[in-house]
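Hi there,

I know you've been waiting on this one. I reran it after we fixed the sequence typo, so this is the corrected version. Both the input and the resulting structure follow.
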Amino acid sequence: MKNFTVYRVGDIRITKITEQIFRTLTVSQLYPDATSALLKSLTGATEVTQDSAVEMSIHSWLVETPHCRLLIDTASGNLKDRPFSSLFHQLHSPWMENLILAGVRPSEIDYVLHTHLHVDHVGWNTVLSGDHWVPTFVNATYVCSNAEMAFYESPAAASRMMVFDDSILPVRDAGQLEVIANQGGQFLPGIKFHPTPGHSPGHMSISIESGNEIALFCGDVMHSPLQVAFSDWNSMFCGQQLAARKSRKRLLEQACLDRTTVFTSHFTESSVGRVTEAQGRYNWEFI
């Protein structure tokens, strides 16, 4: 049986469900603001240059509380047509097998909470049944922000409507989608949505508190530890530049102050850590 690291925050158990790890973008491609001088200023780090490949992960977080089971985001999904990127096109990943090996079957998921609705966060929302996409988690309520749904009604979404059509629309049509207000707030006892727009219009970070401890799921506020050290750096995927920087700095400041355990969406290794500060710069410490 596959060994999974289980993180405990108060009375909750948190397990990473991995889909894939990739190294297709260099530092300068992913972070247009990166410079050699800034990279050389990193202390105690291995040699990182603008041409270094950034290793990233696509995964979900399985959260088991005393009262329910949740998934935070659902990776890219299998067998989906994504002609715009080979990273997501017609995958045959072990994500579902990994979920089951972690001890949970799809029918046992109570909630699917979305940080946002990009292609690599909604894919396992649905599976193919015959020639139709149907909800994977038949007993779950899926949750996202109103602004994320509104994006798919705008002209900017034209090239990504296939993502909506196969991974979001079937959930809505099944009556399993709950859309929350853009200001976020408490969703369930101890579970809150926090607006962190910028990467996408209605991006949310999600906190879960138990036993005076906090787990924070930051979504795509940052894609690698480089953005902890250089919080001004936006990724090439950030849609609203100023808002993305503001959200990242606010999240890092609060996570550092509260000693929050942060669960990331694209960091590799454990993907879990804490934010510290030294000499005017934030640092990332893996757990």
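Quick highlight: The mean pLDDT is 95.

Best,
R. S.
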